[in-house]
Amino acid sequence: MGATLELWPVEATQPKPVFSTFVLTVSDAKHKVYGSAVTFYEKFSADYLTEEQKGLLEYSDDSKFALNVNKSICILSHWPFSEDFETWLRWLHAIVASGEPQTIPIERYITQLLDEVPFPSPRILLQLSSDTHDRVILTQPEDLPLPRSAASFKQLLLNLGSENCLQVLLLILTEQKILIHSLRPDTLTSVAEAVCTMLFPFKWQCPYIPLCPLGK
């Protein structure tokens, strides 16, 4: 959906950060990149707006409204570690949102995860801070015949039900076009991945787009 600039009452409370996942694929869906993102709002300075833009927003310097912009921080990985990445991203956002001076630059945390954490490895413990709760454990997935994915069969059954799941299985076995609609991107991704995984040991050979942008 892209970034949006919104006008809220000054006393309004900002929404809590929202975590979501997505999958990037090539046309044959053979190679996948798993995305994990935390989306949040920040105050936006009116100094960056032109007079024309202020007019479109009906904003004035003495307004009782404040400008807010949505942003995201994201991790792309070939490994579907969405739960672990959610912990890390929310922790990173909490550091930035606190506004407190940090002894370690935020870029150093990012570099440490991307360049210095060895993987694959049987088990990795990331201690994020002195708090024992601030930790992420990355465990190398078992070498199983079932391909690794971001599938959640629990979400598939909860959202579609057993009858609809059987209907979807029939559709994918006969290579029909399938469109799954949801207002929750995280649920949409896990369900779409589960639909493809339930074909095992067969593979979905048709184009696979786990998440389409909303139309205007």
TrEMBL record:
Report which superkingdom the organism of origin falls in: Eukaryota
Tell me any Pfam family this protein matches. DENN
* A GO CC term attached to the entry: cytoplasmic vesicle
Q: GO molecular-function annotation terms?
A: guanyl-nucleotide exchange factor activity
Q: Which PROSITE patterns match?
A: DENN (PS50211)
Offer one example of a GO biological process linked to this entry. regulation of Rab protein signal transduction
Outline the extent of the UDENN domain.
1-216
Q: Which PANTHER family match?
A: DENN DOMAIN-CONTAINING PROTEIN 4, DENN DOMAIN-CONTAINING PROTEIN CRAG
Q: What is this protein called?
A: DENN domain-containing protein
**Annotated source species:** Anoplophora glabripennis
